[in-house]
Amino acid sequence: MANQLFFVFQGHQLLVTESETDPSLPDSQLLAECKPFMLRQHRVLDSQHLSCYALEVNESYIPAMGYRFIGLRSLFGLLNEELIALIGKGLQIIDWDRTHRYCPTCATENTHHEHELAKVCPNCHYRSYPRISPVVMGLIVRDQEILLARSPHFAPGMYSAIAGFCEVGESLEMALHREIKEEVNVVVDQVEYFTSQSWPFPHSLMVAFTCRYVSGTIVPQPQEIEDAKWFSIDALPLLPHPVSIARKLINQTVNTIKARHHALY
Ligand SMILES: [Zn+2]
């Protein structure tokens, strides 16, 4: 019998035990208490060893003693990354179900597709799938330096790689060149894929690249970029959380530059 996990959401918040350092998911007894308040439930994963379900309870549900609702970001570093990714998938499915109740073409109430994660309109047969929004991220390298920027909503002192949403009709590479030019006025080449990560805030797919500086003087885009500058890899500012793709991109790129430098000298 496979292990079962239940992710209980109220809006965008997840139900966990109150522990500050070792929070855990609700047990079967608490789950039974949640059921009368349930708005929707979906299977997130069904493998030989593990089944995961996401469900949403309404605003009337008050957590039992010892439990609380908490934002997923607050659980970074407290739960393992595979579990965070599954919870993030559950959050996106629940969010999609809540926001796609009606057909966007004829406003009839949608039904669930029998086999796919999709909704079907019983009137006009239009299908709605979960929305995924690609975001490109680029870390620009110039010798022993990397270009980092901060947006006004970042934590004080924190800098990260350039990132922005892909626009309709663009390839990932086109979006990357455009975002970098718009946000910091720099031209790059040697764009190399790094990795990607689902980012459920609310439904992004982060696609990260490294690239090489070619030309341009940094001009931060008004409103979007509060500050941007070159940082020596030996004197980096406060960086995003280690769970984030931005941090992994920065860490690995810095290590690669150091290794290359070491090999040269
Ligand atoms: Zn319809």
Descriptive keywords:
Nucleoside Triphosphate Pyrophosphohydrolase, 3 domains, alpha+beta, binds zinc ion, 265 residues, 14 strands, 6-stranded mixed beta sheet, 5-stranded mixed beta sheet
Following the backbone from N to C, one meets helices and strands in this order, namely EEHEEEHEEEEEEHEEEH
Overall tally of structural domains: 3
Shape: globular
CATH fold-level label of the largest domain: Nucleoside Triphosphate Pyrophosphohydrolase
* Count of DSSP-assigned helices: 4
Stretches with pLDDT under 50, minimum 5 residues: none
Distance, first to last CA? 57 Å
Radius of gyration: 22 Å
Q: Could you please describe the fold and organization of this structure?
A:
The protein has 265 residues and is α+β, with helices and mostly antiparallel strands. The protein has three domains: 3-94; 100-131; 133-264, Nucleoside Triphosphate Pyrophosphohydrolase, CATH 3.90.79.10. Helix content is 22%, strand content 35%. It is built from four helices and 14 strands. The protein has helices at residues 28-34, 81-99, 172-184, 245-264; strands at residues 3-10, 13-17, 38-46, 50-57, 67-71, 111-112, 119-120, 127-128, 133-142, 145-150, 162-165, 187-199, 204-215, 227-232. Strands 9, 10, 11, 12, 13 and 14 form a six-stranded mixed sheet that branches. Strands 3-4-1-2-5 form a five-stranded mixed sheet, with helices on one face. A hairpin with a 6-residue loop joins strand 6 (111-112) and strand 7 (119-120). The radius of gyration is 22 Å and the shape is globular. The N and C termini lie far apart (57 Å). The model has no long low-confidence stretch (mean pLDDT 94). The structure holds zinc ion (ZN). Zinc ion is lined by residues 103, 105-106, 108, 121, 123-124, 126.
